[in-house]
Amino acid sequence: MLVIACYDINTETRAGRRRLRRVAKVCEGVGQRVQKSVFEFQIDRMQLEALEQRLLSEIELDEDNLRLYRLPDSRGAEVREHGTFRATDFEGPLVL
C-alpha cells in the first residue's frame, strides 16, 4: 500500500531541531522524501505499524504533529505530480 507521512515538528528549541532530524532520518530509512516534511512509503500493514511506532517514539505529542495517510492499492490511488520531482517507481525494475 502507499502511505504518506506528513509532520510538523516544533523547532523553536534545540531539542525540537534534534527531533526534526531524527524523524526525517526514520522516514528516509523507509521511504522517499517528496517534500521537506512529506514522505511516501510503499509498505505493508506490518511495516506501517512499525514505522508509526518508531515515529511516535521520536515526537512530542504536545508540541508536534504527525499524520499518516494510508492509500490501499485496491482503491486505485492516484498521485498527480507537477514540477521537477519525480517519484521512484516502486513497482518498476530496480536499476543500480
From TrEMBL:
It comes from the Bacteria. The keyword Metal-binding applies. InterPro entries: CRISPR_associated_Cas2, Virulence_VapD/CRISPR_Cas2. Keywords: Antiviral defense, Endonuclease, Hydrolase, Magnesium, Metal-binding, Nuclease. One of its GO terms (biological process) is maintenance of CRISPR repeat elements. Its cofactor is Mg(2+). Its EC number is 3.1.-.-. The keyword Ribonucleoprotein does not apply. It holds the Pfam family CRISPR_Cas2. Gene3D superfamilies: 3.30.70.240. GO terms for molecular function: hydrolase activity; metal ion binding; RNA endonuclease activity. Mg(2+) binds at residue 8. Homodimer, forms a heterotetramer with a Cas1 homodimer. NCBIfam families: cas2. Belongs to the CRISPR-associated endoribonuclease Cas2 protein family. CRISPR (clustered regularly interspaced short palindromic repeat), is an adaptive immune system that provides protection against mobile genetic elements (viruses, transposable elements and conjugative plasmids). CRISPR clusters contain sequences complementary to antecedent mobile elements and target invading nucleic acids. CRISPR clusters are transcribed and processed into CRISPR RNA (crRNA). Functions as a ssRNA-specific endoribonuclease. Involved in the integration of spacer DNA into the CRISPR cassette. This is CRISPR-associated endoribonuclease Cas2. It comes from Denitromonas iodatirespirans. The lineage of its organism: Bacteria, Pseudomonadati, Pseudomonadota, Betaproteobacteria, Rhodocyclales.
